[in-house]
Design brief:
This protein has 114 residues and is of the alpha+beta class. It contains 3 helices and 5 strands; from the N terminus they run H-H-H-E-E-E-E-E. The strands form 2 sheets. It has a 3-stranded antiparallel beta sheet with strand order 3-4-5, with no helix packed on it. Strands 1-2 form a two-stranded antiparallel ribbon. Strand 1 and strand 2 form a beta hairpin. The protein is elongated.
Length: 114
């Protein structure tokens, strides 16, 4: 008889409605937490555009100061070095390996040596 009463009480507990106030409060807290982190993690579009424009300008200034132009995509790297027309291929010193790149005119400082 005691066992039946314990089972009945357990069954009643399972059938009782959930504490909806607790569920609403927990849901509201999780939504606020999610909103705070997603909104604080990314700047508004106008700030993002301004930062992107500044980064492009900075990159352009850095590129202009180099003796070569570097352009890179996922698949390709293009390096352009402008030299005087008097130089021929035999006058150049170019070495490309898996971990290094060197390009210049023989007997002079290389344009790039990385």
């Amino acid at each position: 008889m005691e066992r039946e009463a314990a089972t009945a009480n357990a069954n009643d507990a399972c059938r009782s409605p959930p504490n909806t106030d607790f569920i609403r409060q927990t849901f509201a807290q999780s939504q606020a937490h999610l909103h705070q982190h997603t909104m604080s993690g990314s700047p508004p579009p106008e700030e993002r555009e301004k930062a992107d424009a500044e980064a492009r300008a900075r990159e352009g200034a850095e590129q202009a100061a180099l003796p070569y132009k570097w352009d890179q995509t996922i698949k390709d790297v293009d390096i352009t070095i402008s030299i005087e027309a008097k130089y021929k291929g035999k006058d150049l010193d170019v070495k490309i390996s898996r971990n290094a790149l060197k390009a210049g005119i023989k007997g002079q400082e290389p344009f790039i040596d990385v």
